[in-house]
Amino acid sequence: MTSRLEAEQLFKVFGRRPDEAVERLREGADREGLRADGTTAAVIDASFAVRAGEIFVVMGLSGSGKSTLLRMLNGLLEPTAGHVRFDGQDLTAMTDRELRELRSKKISMVFQHFALFPHRSVRENAAYGLSVQGVPRAERERRADEALALCGLAGWEDSWPDELSGGMQQRVGLARALATDADLLLMDESFSALDPLIRRDMQDQLLELQKTLKKTIVFITHDLNEAMRLGDRIAVMRDGRIVQTGTAEDILLRPAGDYVASFIQDVDRSRVLTAGAVMDTAVRGDEADCGCPAATVDTPFTELCALSARLPHPVAVLDADGTLAGVVTRARLVGFLGADQNADQNGDPSAGPGGEAVCDHDNGGKVTARA
Amino acid sequence: MPRLPLGDWVDSGVNWLVDHLSWLFDAVRVVVEGMYDGLDAVLAAPQPLLLAGILAVLAWWLRGLTAGVLAFAGFALVDSLNLWDQAMSTLALVLVATVIALVISVPLGIWAARSKAVGAALRPVLDLLQTMPSMVLLIPAILFFGLGTAAGVIATLIFALAPGVRMTELGIRQVDAELVEAAEAFGTTPRDILWRVQLPLALPTIMAGVNQVIMLGLSMVVIAGMVGTGGLGGAVNEAIGQLDIGYGFEAGVGIVVLAIYLDRMSGALGTQLSPLGRRAAAGARTAAWSHRPRPAVAVVGVVVLALVAGGMNVFGSAGTSEASGTDIGRGKELKLGYIPWDEGIASTFLWKEMLEERGFKVTTSQYAAGPLYTGLAAGQLDFETDSWLPTTHAEYWKKYGSRLEDVGSWYGPTSLELTVPSYVKDVNSLADLKGHASEFGGKIIGIEPSAGEMALLKDKVLNEYGLKGQFQVVDGSTPAMLAELKRDYARKQPVIVTLWSPHWAYSAYDLKKLKDPMGAWGRGDRVHTLARKGFAADNPEVAKWLKDFSMTEKQLTGLEQRIQQAGKGKEQDAVRAWLKKNPGLVDKWAPVPGKGARSGAAG
């Protein structure tokens, strides 16, 4: 897949003499040194590429520069140095007018606190981007209603933003971003202000929508669980720098440095890991021949636990062709859950039911088992 | 510390502006006066109760039935107090000042909100405009724009400008930054962000600013009355000038009615204009007494009433033309100014009546002495009849004399004096005051510090009698002085007041003029009529009448007394009645050549 959006050595420095500060950063100066001079380095040497149709999550704590980074991707902020390329066009070389044109048609944005216009109805809010484009009223209302329906807000078109709950308001925000048919969606901590349950719903809905819409999404969050749940790939930021870019499993299994490692301690690994990530590829070859249910490489960790609990022996993992790819022992399951990535492969395959205690049996019924 | 000649710089700056930018000021004056005259004509045209009805329908539409009924009651009250014309001219003045203030202040506020530098630069200027005492701004306003509405409107709007700018700036800055960013993120142009996001959301705050502008404008109206804008402000000034508490209160009530109406209407307009406010109002409205007609109904109501009003005005104004042999003026306009002193009022309204009988169209307006001279020197007024020369108004004559024509004196001699009630036994002359300071609390009750008599008293009289340091001259105003006299007189307490003759106080109270053995007050003044440069050439007949005019003390005090009895607003009626009692005076003071022989030909 080709990359849709590319950031190349982006710097953003606030304060006096930013160019000088960039030089010093390139020479290895750090954020603290600059702060003493009254300049703030928000983003330092950030490079990444986002592929068409993927959800790229930028994860970092507050102050890590992720929001600044996001605003450089649609030209709301001009990078101090470096380039942003969208569909091969260099945003940094564009005029204000071209940038506005691009933002109104190709890139849309969803905000942390929804940023709905309180003086416009839900329909007018959803149609805002289209009205900026100059789309005639009848058409933009039709498209806005479609986008609202897509986000589960059919029937609320004539309401006002302050009449809706937080989750519904953010659906309006999402509908507003979708209504313009932009290819690139920038989501700035879009679910952070919502209750945990509503946040789960919104995450599910976004994933559901993404299955059909296949937008390119850059999603900012400070919540690693959310990052792992949503992200096809994740960039972890710290103090303005991207410290690691990779899939959820990469981050979890091969954290680059102590910072990321300390970060992932609290992550619910069972949500992220799949059979493919935890299996032991050293196989004899006949583990799948017993006719017992087997897992695929994509089987989630929780289902793997359920399978393992019902089998007297390690679970066989099959790849897409149905050939044996590896096996998962109970000891391995427990080991991964405990953040021990070097899980002992010599563990006792007939280890007691200790694994069951931590496995989620509720999901057992949904196992995609293979006979 | 070296003396910083700040005042001199301002003086020469003002003079430079007057000399070099008069074309600009004239243009501004024409525009402002045009707006005012147009609006005033519209407001004054219909029958008072009809216009009250129109205003009430507006209130009904904007706020509900109760507001409509109250508005009608309020305006009916103003009409019943005989203050309708003044109220409408004040309303016109405030509305014109408000509109101009908004046209200037809202864009400035927007600019200030968008640029930190502009905001920082504007702030001290706004502070200056808001806190500089308004009289200080008023005199330059007269120099630039001349006496009358323009100066009043400009002084009012300068005073009222600041809250408009500040509230606009605040309103726009208060708009949630995330909303502005959201608009930017969807590619909105800066101009559209302003119009579609910032202004609609800032509207409630901006309207609060508009409300402030209107209220401050109304509060300035009284002060603007001093430069001859007339209206309720003029009425208030007139009332305090003559210690007429009742009339002052009535005029004050008129201002209050206008203030409440404008406050509530501008508030309601803000709610109606803002989509958010409209929604909140719609949710809150349930009761029958807050029922509001639909806009269409309101518009129809206003239009019908306005048509009726217009129609009645057309029919009402028919058949008022007249022609007679005494029509010397042929509708020529003359502008008279006067200081609200008794002899000034008497002589001014006497001439108004006589000139109108002679076919002139006469307008009179009341001023403080300073603005009166300034306006006359600038040619804004035609003449005034109350200049005390050579002593009392010497300062003014020195400053403006070269730009004025002295038409001659009509009364004299006058005298200035310190006066005590006659129950004060031990003081009979100025020389007796020495050592008696404690008896009077060391105070001499003065009048306006700008009055010539005050300067004379402080600089000359006190020195010559060695009273400096013993007595303190209390600056104040003529009404305050008279009120103090009245109070102390009633309680039989010793008091020294600054007074002059002729004055009605001498007939009202038993007073004693302190003798002036050293002649420190100088010889008595005579009351002169002063006209603008070129007046005699433009109006030879009138100038001749004025030149030959003179009144005896008996005539003057008699007329003054009659005016005093008639009460406020009926000066001209009193003059008419007085002239009827003294037949032949009009023909004596304003003789028409060949009168009687020509009267047949004119018909």
Quick description:
The complex is a heterodimer of chains A (371) and B (603). Chain A has 371 residues and is α/β, with parallel strands linked by helices.
Word description of this protein:
The complex is a heterodimer of chains A (371) and B (603). Chain A is of the alpha/beta class and 371 residues long. Among the domains of chain A are: 51-106 and 182-267, 3-Layer(aba) Sandwich (Rossmann fold); 272-366, CBS-domain (Roll), CATH 3.10.580. Chain A is built from 17 helices and 13 strands. In chain A, 45% of the residues are buried. Helix content of chain B is 63%, strand content 9%. Chain B is built from 26 helices and 10 strands. Chain B has helices at 6-20, 22-44, 48-63, 65-80, 84-114, 116-131, 134-145, 149-174, 177-185, 190-224, 231-241, 245-273, 275-284, 295-316, 342-357, 369-377, 394-400, 452-464, 478-490, 505-508, 535-538, 540-548, 553-566, 571-581, 585-589, 599-602, and strands spanning 333-338, 361-366, 383-389, 404-411, 415-421, 443-445, 472-474, 497-501, 511-513, 526-532. In chain B, helix 3 (48-63) crosses helix 12 (245-273) and helix 5 packs antiparallel against helix 6. The longest helix of chain B is centred in the middle third of the chain and has 35 residues, at 190-224. The radius of gyration of chain B is 28 Å and the shape is globular. Chain B starts with 5 loop residues before the first helix and ends with a helix. Chains A and B meet through helix 4, strand 6 and helix 6 of A and helix 9, helix 10 and helix 13 of B.
